[in-house]
Amino acid sequence: MIKRFNVMQEERHQLLLLVQDIRQDHPTMGVRDIYYKLNPAHIGRDAFERLCRNWDLMIKKERNYSRTTDSSGVVRFDNLIENLTLTHIDQVWQSDITYYLLHGKFYYLTFILDAFSRRILGYRASKRLYTEDTTLPALQQAIAARKNTILKGLIFHSDGGGQYYDDKFLQLTKKYAMKNSMCEYAWENGKAERINGVIKNNYLKYRKINSYADLIKELDRSVQLYNKEKPHIALQRKSPVTFENEILHLHQQTKLKMTKSLNANNQILGASSPKKSEQTQLQNQNV
Questions:
Q1: What is the pLDDT, as a whole number, of residue 1?
Q2: Are residues 50 and 101 in the same domain?
Q3: What separation in angstroms does the CA of 188 have from each of 67, 123, 139, 216?
Q4: What are the CA-CA distances from residue 38 to residues 15, 61, 186 (Å)?
Q5: pLDDT on residue 64
Q6: 165 domain-assigned
Q7: Residue 185, in any domain of the structure
Q8: Domain enclosing residue 45, as ranges
Q9: Which stretches of the chain score pLDDT less than 50?
Q10: What residues contact residue 206 under an 8 Å CB cut-off, 6+ apart?
Q11: Based on the domain organization, do 226 and 179 belong to the same domain?
Q12: Sign of the dihedral defined by the CA atoms of residues 60, 64, 70, 74, in that order
């Protein structure tokens, strides 16, 4: 019973975030239309409308909606990236869930990107908002993308959506010793918010997508193009993958130079020190 209640709370909280998202693109769409397009699993139409009414989402809002509920079952993590200076990859990952409208029906897109390199590490298109369809597979993909990289201490930052504090999701972040972080306002997760618009408006918008299968195919294509070919001003006009590869190459070169220098010093020290047999001969001569 408690588990079912928590699942309902998680979905309702994410629905609030998605309604705000939809409102920005469709400011005059009624909440009843939004309900039938989202087709949520654990809330009826009337309850959905009451939820939107309670959160003042019946009309277009002048400010971005970003409050998170304080209801029972909702988990809140501290914002660990506020005033944090980014210095390397795998320091902070940021994530967000958005919607994609296709033939009058909503699907969901989940992204995880490295905040330093802007590379999308994990992503997922889904028909449902469940954790196992959104954040969990996206995180599994992101971890796989880093292969054997040690992720201990990495900050995983997101909004307050229920999929980010679901038990299965938290078990995975705990397994890799990640630190969970959440924002209170949308702009505190800006990079993840922006990637939603970039993929939807700069890539998917110009593709021929007529089915869910098309969406999956074109999402994969768009992410690959973004990661490997899109230049960023903040990355010295390099793509995220190129930027990361140069960082890795520089790190390897620095490590190689340090190793060579250390070996050279050891050889010099060895050459200047007389061998044990020579020391013994000198001592015998002195006697």
A1: 67
A2: no
A3: 12, 20, 20, 28
A4: 8, 20, 21
A5: 37
A6: yes
A7: yes
A8: 2-54
A9: 60-72, 272-278, 280-283, 285-287
A10: none
A11: yes
A12: positive
